[in-house]
């Protein structure tokens, strides 16, 4: 029968021997050192722009472009305090608004996309390929042409300047990306597990909750992380659907630091960009553990 | 179209058309797909079809759309900037998607397991992707690829005089491709999740059989990962066809210098919002949809030959 | 479908709504909710049509939209607070974003029938919104404009209506950094007499001084410099009839000046020019002390001075005494407009009047939108100007006798011209097009854009 077992957590910084320990110990240590060196070098290149942003955020506003070097000549944390209070509300207000939208979206996407994905991955119903194609087609139009009709629609519903247009669609599985993602993961789960469960008298609901969901934790974590990050960064639809500054979110607020036609508060922009990166970074740091902790099937007899 | 190939894979499943399971499953599908059906009808389909209608009109956003038949579509054939934007997009799609996926897969394999500081590395490599389309990207990119940027500073050590890569018509598109590869975090995470999903038992069985690591990689990891590779390929292609934000931010919305980064969607946006030709922009969007659909269908057709499903 | 049939209210939303409702109805037979709200919208629309006096006992809510950065948002909020303190029965909801986002949001809102009541406008889009009936003719309302100079006011006037009231004025001028001149060992020009020839010599000399500075930052991507150049020859970019009013030769000469500078080190390479173009004031050559001169609006002086950390001088354009007339002009930096279907036109008019004519508002805004267009307000707030503003104000006073007239309101479609010019300018600078080809291409594309 099936044997479900937690896969050892490899994120706990305990180097585990590879699947096949054929190589000698010294060889593998040199290899690992090389690997670290490559990764660190790569990491520096990857992170250079971010470090530059961090460094700029602690420079005085007028020195940012006059002294663009990576090491600041003088430290000035006032960008953080000034930037925090520069807009109509303290920056925490926008962080909170973003958090509400993000949490709603994550919840919505997890539930609705998992349900839809199960149907596409495991059920047999009429015109399934057609519906699947339609699902993919709905994400092939650029937002700039659907935003106006969407605006009219939400305006008719009286939803403009509320969070509804940003959250409700997520509960209705409009993010095809995640449906398709989960379909691929569900299809990777051996069908023998379903059949075994069905022999035990389980219906679709039980298979869904007791096999699919636990076995696709990595996919669910991916969905949650991505929904969090993408919603957190989504500028255009939040700009269009939210008209009152009380409802503004982080990306919309960040834009208001710069004006290509006049004076811009670059220091505040960089400082608040760093601030707004912190929640996503933390979510990622903790969320990525679930990419490792996924339960894997270890044997079917 | 893509339905066709899906069909071929689905047919292989047990219980063909009109079987009792299909009937029972049909009722369940209403439950599982319920939210999606409602969303399709209430939220997605309306704006989609409205944009199709608008593509046959002259619509400036400020006044009523006027029906003009296929004029927008015929106009596209004689629009040199549109053709230019198709070229830019095509180069971008066919160069940056494979590069980005290769980088993502490579790093995902490196960062899969069995080493110190894994969480830290993963986060470090993912960080750039967090920046997304932030306004800061434009500044950051100039700090690297600008005339006085990092690259040129490094080149000058070797006595080479560089130039403004990001702002030269011959190189600007390449820097955007690099920018896209730089943000490989999303597909990397999906690959990582996919690697987690591969049942341990296959590796165990293989090592009992004495298969080398390389052999395990080619005969277990890669085949088991193909559905995820396929997913990333399809979605990154669809996404790359619509590339907008990075080009918009880096070129200040112009698609410049000299239209060298005029992506299709950027041009569409300029038509729709800057020039207030939303009718034309809608027609462009439907052209893009058709091209993307053909590409995706092709992808599904070819997937038969290399994607391995467990079911 | 009620919304399908309601023909009187908000016509610009009708067809789109119809499409949406029809597609939805195909799959879903009942859509009660949409019907209810659109019926409500219909009655609101009817009310808006009725003329109304400002009633101090009635509650009004206005949405006021503008673009800018955090500094302006703070100032505008203060203006709103000052106004609502005077008229507590009016609530003003701000709606602001950066320049690019602003126009997307505005157009989408208009398409959806949610036009903000009071709208900040810019010359390039004024006619687009005015001729299409989105914004109201402000002559119908009680807003004093007699303290605004006629040549400024007239730019907001077309089709027999006043569609925008200028809030502030600017002059496009040459900014110069005396410190860089000194470092390069080049004397500052006498801006009352310098010619285009001298301008080129100076810029190239500075570039050749070996101090790794440039003489000038390219500004050919923006129309106003060319406008000055053309006007000096008695031509205009746009005629009052909304057509192109210059000779191709003029544009060719204009580009040849830039190419001369570029070839001889007077201005940066084409690719660096492109970088500077997207960088804004803070990242400009002047802002980073890497250049001696740049072309900017007077209200950008303070921002660039701050970035550079040094005092700059305002100069007249070269050739002002060389050609057949002077080319410089006062430009209204922004306009205030009113939605044509606002529900509270009387209150909106009061608010616009307050922003334009009340010294209290002037004291808050100072030079944020350029120097106050209302001359009384300008005098009243002069004492509070920053050093940069004082410099700008004095410069403008000096110019008053020299400036001949304003430029005509740009035609519908002029919003696109800036992008066309920027693109062809870089084609010319990268030498992928000759100035002659560029001029031809520019004329062809602009003629199509402005129809």
TrEMBL record, chain A:
One of its GO terms (biological process) is transmembrane transport. It comes from the Bacteria. GO terms for cellular component: plasma membrane. Its main location: membrane. Residues 95-287 form the ABC transmembrane type-1 domain. The keyword Membrane applies. Keywords: Cell membrane, Membrane, Transmembrane, Transmembrane helix, Transport. It is found in: Cell membrane. It is a multi-pass membrane protein. SUPFAM superfamilies: MetI-like. Pfam families: BPD_transp_1 (PF00528). The chain crosses the membrane at residues 33-52, 94-118, 130-154, 166-186, 207-232, 266-286. PANTHER family: ABC TRANSPORTER PERMEASE PROTEIN MG189-RELATED-RELATED, ABC TRANSPORTER PERMEASE PROTEIN YESQ-RELATED. Belongs to the binding-protein-dependent transport system permease family. This is Sugar ABC transporter permease.
From TrEMBL, chain B:
Keywords: Cell membrane, Membrane, Transmembrane, Transmembrane helix, Transport. It is a multi-pass membrane protein. Pfam families: BPD_transp_1. GO terms for cellular component: plasma membrane. The chain crosses the membrane at residues 36-56, 90-111, 123-141, 171-195, 216-238, 281-302. InterPro entries: ABC_transporter_permease (IPR051393), MetI-like (IPR000515), MetI-like_sf (IPR035906). Residues 86-299 form the ABC transmembrane type-1 domain. One of its GO terms (biological process) is transmembrane transport. It is found in: Cell membrane. Residues 1-21 have a biased composition (Polar residues). Belongs to the binding-protein-dependent transport system permease family. This is ABC transporter permease. It comes from Cellulomonas aerilata.
From TrEMBL, chain C:
InterPro entries: Bact_solute-bd_prot1, SBP. Keywords: Signal. Residues 1-34 form the signal peptide. This is Sugar ABC transporter substrate-binding protein.
């Amino acid at each position: 029968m099936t044997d479900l077992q937690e896969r050892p957590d490899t994120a706990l910084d305990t180097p585990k021997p590879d699947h096949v320990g054929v190589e000698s110990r010294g060889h593998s240590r040199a290899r690992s050192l090389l690997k670290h060196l490559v990764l660190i070098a790569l990491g520096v290149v990857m992170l250079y722009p971010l470090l530059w942003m961090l460094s700029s955020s602690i420079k005085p506003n007028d020195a940012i472009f006059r002294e663009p070097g990576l090491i600041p000549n003088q430290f000035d944390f006032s960008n953080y305090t000034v930037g925090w209070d520069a807009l109509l509300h303290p920056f925490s207000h926008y962080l909170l608004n973003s958090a509400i939208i993000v949490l709603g979206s994550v919840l919505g996407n997890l539930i609705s996309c998992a349900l839809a994905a199960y149907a596409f991955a495991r059920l047999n119903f009429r015109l399934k390929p057609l519906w699947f194609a339609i699902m993919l087609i709905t994400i092939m139009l650029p937002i700039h042409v659907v935003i106006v009709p969407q605006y009219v629609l939400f305006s008719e519903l009286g939803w403009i300047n509320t969070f509804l247009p940003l959250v409700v669609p997520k509960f209705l599985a409009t993010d095809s990306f995640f449906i398709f993602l989960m379909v691929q993961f569900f299809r990777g789960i051996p069908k023998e597990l379903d059949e075994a469960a069905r022999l035990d008298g389980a219906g679709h609901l039980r298979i869904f909750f007791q096999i699919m969901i636990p076995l696709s934790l990595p996919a669910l974590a991916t969905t949650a992380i991505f929904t969090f990050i993408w919603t957190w960064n989504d500028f255009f639809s939040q700009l269009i659907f939210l008209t009152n500054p009380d409802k503004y979110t982080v990306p919309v607020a960040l834009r208001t630091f710069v004006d290509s036609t006049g004076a811009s508060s670059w220091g505040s922009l960089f400082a608040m960009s760093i601030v707004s990166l912190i929640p996503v970074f933390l979510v990622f740091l903790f969320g990525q553990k679930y990419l490792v902790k996924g339960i894997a099937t270890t044997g079917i007899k | 179209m893509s339905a066709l190939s899906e069909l071929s894979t689905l047919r292989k499943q047990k219980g063909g058309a009109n079987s009792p399971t299909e009937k029972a499953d049909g009722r369940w599908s209403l439950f599982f797909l319920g939210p999606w059906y409602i969303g399709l009808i209430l939220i997605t389909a309306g704006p989609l079809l409205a944009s199709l209608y608008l593509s046959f009109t002259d619509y400036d956003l400020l006044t009523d759309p006027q029906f003009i038949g296929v004029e927008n579509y015929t106009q596209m054939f004689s629009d040199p900037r549109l053709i230019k934007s198709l070229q830019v997009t095509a180069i971008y799609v066919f160069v940056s998607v494979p590069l980005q996926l290769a980088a993502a897969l490579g790093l995902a394999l490196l960062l899969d397991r069995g080493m110190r500081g894994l969480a830290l590395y993963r986060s470090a490599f993912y960080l750039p992707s967090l920046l997304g389309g932030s306004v800061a990207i434009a500044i950051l990119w100039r700090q690297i690829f600008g005339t006085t940027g990092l690259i040129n500073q490094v080149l000058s050590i070797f006595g080479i005089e560089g130039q403004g890569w990001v702002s030269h018509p011959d190189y600007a598109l390449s820097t955007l491709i690099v920018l896209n590869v730089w943000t490989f975090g999303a597909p990397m995470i999906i690959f990582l999740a996919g690697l987690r999903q591969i049942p341990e038992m296959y590796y165990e069985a293989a090592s009992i059989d004495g298969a080398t690591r390389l052999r395990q990689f080619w005969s277990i990891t890669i085949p088991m990962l193909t559905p995820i590779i396929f997913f990333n390929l399809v979605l990154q292609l669809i996404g790359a066809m619509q590339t907008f934000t990075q080009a918009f931010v880096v070129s200040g919305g112009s698609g410049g210098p000299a239209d060298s980064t005029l992506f299709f969607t950027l041009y569409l946006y300029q038509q729709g919002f800057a020039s207030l030709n939303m009718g034309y922009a809608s027609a462009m969007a439907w052209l893009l949809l058709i091209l993307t659909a053909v590409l995706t269908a092709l992808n599904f057709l070819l997937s038969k030959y290399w994607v391995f499903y467990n079911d | 479908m009620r919304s399908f049939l309601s023909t009187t209210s908000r016509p610009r939303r009708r067809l789109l709504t119809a499409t949406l409702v029809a597609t939805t109805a195909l799959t879903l037979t009942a859509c009660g909710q949409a019907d209810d709200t659109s019926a409500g919208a219909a009655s609101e629309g009817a009310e808006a049509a009725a003329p109304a006096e400002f009633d101090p006992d009635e509650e009004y809510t206005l949405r006021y939209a503008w673009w800018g950065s955090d500094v302006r948002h703070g100032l505008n909020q203060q203006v709103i607070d000052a106004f609502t303190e005077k008229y507590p029965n009016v609530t003003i909801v701000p709606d602001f974003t950066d320049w690019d986002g602003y126009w997307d949001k505005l157009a989408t809102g208009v398409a959806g029938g949610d036009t903000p009541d009071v709208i900040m406008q810019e010359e390039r889009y004024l006619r687009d919104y005015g001729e299409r009936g989105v914004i109201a003719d402000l002559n119908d309302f009680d807003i004093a404009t007699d303290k605004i100079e006629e040549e400024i006011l007239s730019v907001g006037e077309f089709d027999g209506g006043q569609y925008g009231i200028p809030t502030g004025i600017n002059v496009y001028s040459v900014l110069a950094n005396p410190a860089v001149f000194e470092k390069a060992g080049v004397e500052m020009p006498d801006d009352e007499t310098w010619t285009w020839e001298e301008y080129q010599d100076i810029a190239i000399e500075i570039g050749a001084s070996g101090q790794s500075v440039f003489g000038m930052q390219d500004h050919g991507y923006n129309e106003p410099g060319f406008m000055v150049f053309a006007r000096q020859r008695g031509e205009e970019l746009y005629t009052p009839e909304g057509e192109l009013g210059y000779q191709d030769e003029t544009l060719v000469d204009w580009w040849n000046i830039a190419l001369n500078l570029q070839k001889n080190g007077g201005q940066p390479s084409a690719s660096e020019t492109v970088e500077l173009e997207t960088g804004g004031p803070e990242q400009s050559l002047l802002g980073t002390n890497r250049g001696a001169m740049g072309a900017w609006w007077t209200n950008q002086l303070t921002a660039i001075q701050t970035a550079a950390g040094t005092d700059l001088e305002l100069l007249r354009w070269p050739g002002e005494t060389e050609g057949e007339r002077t080319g410089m002009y006062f430009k209204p930096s922004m306009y205030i407009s009113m939605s044509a279907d606002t529900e509270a036109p009387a209150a909106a008019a009061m608010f616009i009047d307050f922003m334009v004519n009340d010294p209290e508002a002037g004291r808050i805004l100072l030079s944020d939108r350029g120097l106050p267009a209302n001359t009384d307000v300008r005098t009243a707030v002069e004492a509070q100007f920053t050093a940069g503003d004082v410099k700008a104000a004095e410069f403008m006073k000096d110019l008053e006798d020299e400036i001949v007239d304003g430029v005509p309101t740009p035609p519908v479609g002029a919003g696109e011209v800036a992008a066309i010019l920027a693109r062809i300018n870089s084609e010319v600078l990268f030498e992928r097009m000759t100035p002659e080809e560029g001029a031809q291409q520019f004329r062809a594309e602009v003629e199509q854009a402005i129809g």
